[in-house]
């Protein structure tokens, strides 16, 4: 299996400023457009996984990044390093999808600490990317990525994709 992937996103906006007789246009742009090819070094990946999942009220997924997921061919995926995570919360959700903060064996990756989380609002998308160094996954002690339905009364749907390396 050979992997190629593109991670993209950002903001590009124009502001029309009236500060004189003719005004001016100020452009604001911060973006991400990173291409990955198959491999193990910087800007390369050899593992990819994605899914659309629905969580019942107050339920969570504990995604095991070191052997608990399967690829398109049905083989177990063991990430040694994660280069990108994208989580998209369905617009119809009644509450946030909360990413991170597993009770044990937490994949801290981009979160800065085991209890840190990011709330993805309904219709929102979280894009985390570390194309050069990635974030290490430590089997059995640092490999669980928690995804929580923040609603205590309704189910919630999200899409997720994880890109990384086996070594």
Unreliable sequence segments = none
Radius of gyration from CA coordinates: 18 Å
CATH class: Mainly Beta
CATH architecture: Sandwich
Mean pLDDT: 95
Instruction: Give the number of DSSP strands.
Output: 14
Helical stretch count?
0
Give an overview in words.
By secondary structure, this protein is mainly β. The protein has a single domain (40-165), classed as Jelly Rolls (Sandwich), CATH 2.60.120.10. The protein has strands spanning 5-17, 24-38, 44-45, 47-55, 60-64, 66-70, 76-78, 81-89, 97-100, 117-120, 125-129, 135-136, 144-149, 156-165. Strands 4, 8, 11, 12 and 14 form a five-stranded antiparallel β-sheet that branches. Strands 5-13-9-10 form a four-stranded antiparallel β-sheet, with no helix packed on it. The protein is globular and about 65 Å long. The mean pLDDT is 95.
Summarize the structure.
By secondary structure, the chain is an all-beta fold. 0% of the residues lie in helices and 55% in strands. The protein has a single domain, classed as Jelly Rolls (Sandwich).
Please supply descriptive tags for the structure shown above.
single chain, 5-stranded antiparallel sheet, Jelly Rolls, 4-stranded antiparallel sheet, 167 residues, mainly beta
How would you summarize the topology of this molecule?
Blueprint: E1 5-17, E2 24-38, E3 44-45, E4 47-55, E5 60-64, E6 66-70, E7 76-78, E8 81-89, E9 97-100, E10 117-120, E11 125-129, E12 135-136, E13 144-149, E14 156-165
Parallel strand pairs: 2-3
Antiparallel strand pairs: 1-2, 4-14, 5-13, 6-7, 8-11, 8-12, 8-14, 9-10, 9-13
């Amino acid at each position: 299996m050979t992997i190629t992937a593109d991670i993209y996103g950002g903001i590009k906006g124009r502001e029309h400023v009236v500060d004189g007789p003719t005004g001016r246009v100020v452009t604001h742009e911060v973006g991400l457009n990173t291409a990955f090819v198959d491999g193990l070094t910087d800007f390369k990946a050899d593992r990819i996984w994605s899914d659309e999942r629905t969580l019942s009220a107050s339920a969570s997924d504990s995604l095991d990044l070191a052997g608990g997921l399967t690829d398109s061919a049905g083989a177990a995926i063991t990430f040694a390093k994660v280069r990108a995570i994208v989580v998209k919360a369905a617009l119809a959700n009644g509450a946030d999808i909360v990413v991170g903060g597993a009770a044990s064996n937490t994949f801290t990756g981009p979160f800065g600490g085991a209890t840190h989380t990011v709330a993805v609002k309904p219709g929102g998308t979280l894009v985390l990317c570390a194309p050069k160094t990635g974030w290490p996954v430590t089997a059995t002690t640092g490999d669980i990525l928690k995804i929580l339905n923040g609603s205590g009364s309704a189910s919630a749907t999200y899409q997720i994709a994880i890109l990384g390396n086996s070594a």
